Amino acid sequence: MNGFAEPGKQEQDGTGPDLRVLVVRAVARSYHWVLLLTLLGAATGIGVGLLQPNRYVSNAKLSLRMGAREQLTSESLVDFDERQRAPTPTMIDELQMLSDVGIFERVARELGPRLVLQPADPGRDDGPLTPVLVRLLHRVQGEVLRRVNEPGSGPGENELRSAAKVLRENTTVLPEPGSSVILVSHTATSPEMARTIVQALAGAFIERHRDQFSIQSLLEKIRGQVDAARLARDETARTYVEEVSQSGIAVLETQVPRLETELSALESELFAVLVRREEISRLRTSLSNRLQGIPAEVEIQRPSVMIPNEEYETLLALKRQALAQKQEMLIQSRPSEEMRRREREFDNQIAKIDQKLKETPKAIAQDSEMQENLSHSAMETRIVDLEVEDEALPVRIGLLESRLDTKKARLTEIQKKLLNATMLRKDLASARDAEESRYAHLLERLAVLEALENIDAHGEANLRVLQAPTLEHEKVGPRRASLLLKGLLAGLLAALAFAILRERFERRLRHPEMFAQARGLPVLAVVPHLSALRRLKKDALAAGR
């Protein structure tokens, strides 16, 4: 039955062996490999179990109580109204906070990385009654663990991170269903180590909760804000005082009433002058109309008397003057013709004067006298005075209007400056009052925070230990029997897979049905595998040599 076939040909023909038959044949053919791999898997499970140190667990319980301190915010410190409080943190929020890597790094730093990473000592509980084989096994196991987990040359950041990672991987923080209790568990290589680490973790968790909801950060922040607000308040107050003193607003405020009084007086005076001008115009018109009906002189009747005639006296004076001029002419040396002509002129003039003198009486009779009318004179004087006053009024009006315009311009300028200064002072006053109010408000908040800080410094945190860490001497791992069983099963499955694959990809025709299917010929007989036949074959081969 020697022959070869291509692997997988039976499957292509659809005449391959049954799976159960394939498994049985594979195990029967490779039983020594199956046994070897199964034993190797079991040995691996035992080795893994021996390499793992005993594990002990310690449990602690923390009670969480969410109070007003956990709900405080910067806004709620302004007004302790329930509506201003933040939502109450939940258990999920607390667990998220406690899963911070910094907590485990703090615990690793407090305990020391070497203590956390210290390898287990399997023989720490060995005594005189411990069997020698067990003690030897513990010694070998301890030596292997020391070599595997040997720490670095000195503590450093890498060692600290490794210790924190070990603490985090071996620690479980879970809430108890339906309660506000948090269960903290840690698995270590000794009960004492597990309890020490759980105790340190519980303290770190409580301190983390206290730091998280502490108002110290808010207090430091508000103190800085108070200092800044005080400086801002002093600066605004100083700016306000400087602006008031430099702007001269006090002087301007005193000038405004005085200018307003002067303007009022000037306006009254100007109004009075304008009224007086209108009054003068009306009086002049009235007096002029009245003056037309009043004679300038009045005739006064007296007894008849002879008085020198002024006309006669005048003519006589003219005659004397002419005679004097003629005499003077005769004295001067002039041509005769001109002298005669001039003499004739003077003679004619003197003759005419003599003729008038003859016609004019030397004295006249007077029985009445014309005298000045006092009413007409007084009224005329009044009209003249009014005209003089009226001529002076435009100058006075112009002067008053000029002074009035100057005062108005000055008042407008002062009012504009005063308005600008007032607005600026108002803005500065508003800024000063705002900073003062803000400073007072921050002082009030600081007082509240300092009071809360005093309570926070002397009060308990709302996360507290409900159950102290336990000391459990009963180990929780490793489960070496389970590891042995798992290694045995893994070796058995690996052996079966190897045997089936070996049998499946075998090219030799080792069975009758395989030969019949591969060659298409029936099998007439099969030589059994007998030990006697194998011995005969060996003897024949030995004789042939």
Characterise the protein shown here:
There is one protein chain. The protein is of the alpha+beta class and 545 residues long. The chain has helices at residues 9-13, 19-29, 31-51, 91-98, 101-111, 113-116, 132-148, 157-169, 191-212, 216-247, 249-291, 310-331, 336-359, 374-458, 480-504, 512-519, 531-544, and strands spanning 56-64, 171-175, 181-188, 297-308, 363-372, 463-467. α3 (31-51) runs antiparallel to α15 and α5 (101-111) packs across α9. The two termini are 25 Å apart. The relative contact order is 0.17. The strands form two sheets. A four-stranded antiparallel sheet has the order 2-3-1-6. A two-stranded antiparallel ribbon has the order 4-5. The chain is rod-shaped and about 230 Å long.
Which features would summarize this protein structure in a list?
four-stranded antiparallel beta sheet, two-stranded antiparallel sheet, 545 residues, rod-shaped, single chain
List the helices and strands and how they pair.
Layout: H1 9-13, H2 19-29, H3 31-51, E1 56-64, H4 91-98, H5 101-111, H6 113-116, H7 132-148, H8 157-169, E2 171-175, E3 181-188, H9 191-212, H10 216-247, H11 249-291, E4 297-308, H12 310-331, H13 336-359, E5 363-372, H14 374-458, E6 463-467, H15 480-504, H16 512-519, H17 531-544
Antiparallel strand pairs: 1-3, 1-6, 2-3, 4-5
Helix pairs in contact: 2-15, 3-15, 5-8, 5-9, 10-14, 11-14, 12-13
